What does this fold into?
Amino acid sequence: MSWVAAVARLRARREPGVLVTVATVRGHAPRRAGAKLVVGRTETWGSIGGGNIEAVAIDRARELNAAADPEPELMEFALNDKVTGRHGVQCCGGAVCVLLEPLPVVQAVAVFGVGHVGLELARILARHNLDLHLIDTRPDMLTDERLGVLADAVAQIHVHHTPLLPEEVLAELPPGTHVLIMTHDHAEDAALCDAALRTFGLGSIGLIGSSAKWTRFRQRLATEGGHDAATIDRIKTPIGLTGITGKEPATIALSVAADLLRTFEEDHHLAVLNTLAAVPRS
It folds into this structure.
């Protein structure tokens, strides 16, 4: 498997990894500059030459996979019989510098309803490295022509046309996916809110709409859905930054995107704290 395919596999699995590249070579070495190795939690793909170089790089890559906030780093190896490595001696006679680049699990966002606001939101989110799921019951909202504005997306776009029960998509979403509910139909929104609260492992849940809409929804979620107050409070509404009050679709989308990016930052900070708290202290 090529390193490109290996990176894609890790992303599809939502598994962290490290891309290891031979950055520079002086003298004799097992592989030329540019050789690549991809390291997952339990698997590796490719090779940077085997022996001590590769084994040490894999050890370090696995440490980075488990780290709270890994950064790219360089490792240097002298290949001579005077240097004993952790996994043996390589005496090719040269020197190698290896670059390790962490491949973190990206955020995932699901936008239910790709109308005026949903499409503007997708255009903004598509400029970020994340998995973006677009769901709508109306096929004309998801045509190739209409979504052509996302053709140069940095994000990976996943389009779901669900004519009858869009809430079924919730069970297919990756763990931790942030859900934004903004369909054209209040009944559809209500069903999605109820289903989202019953779906284990989602990230944040946001609902577009007025306070009057939320009052009705909250009552239905309690009386018909049987959800308690703490569970219902998982739904954030209104969504977006409170200081931005414009009603144009692009303005609403910008506000929602900014609020979501702030949530990403909070998630990252919490993950770092949790990782650090789990590290044994001597």
Remarks:
- The mean pLDDT is 90.
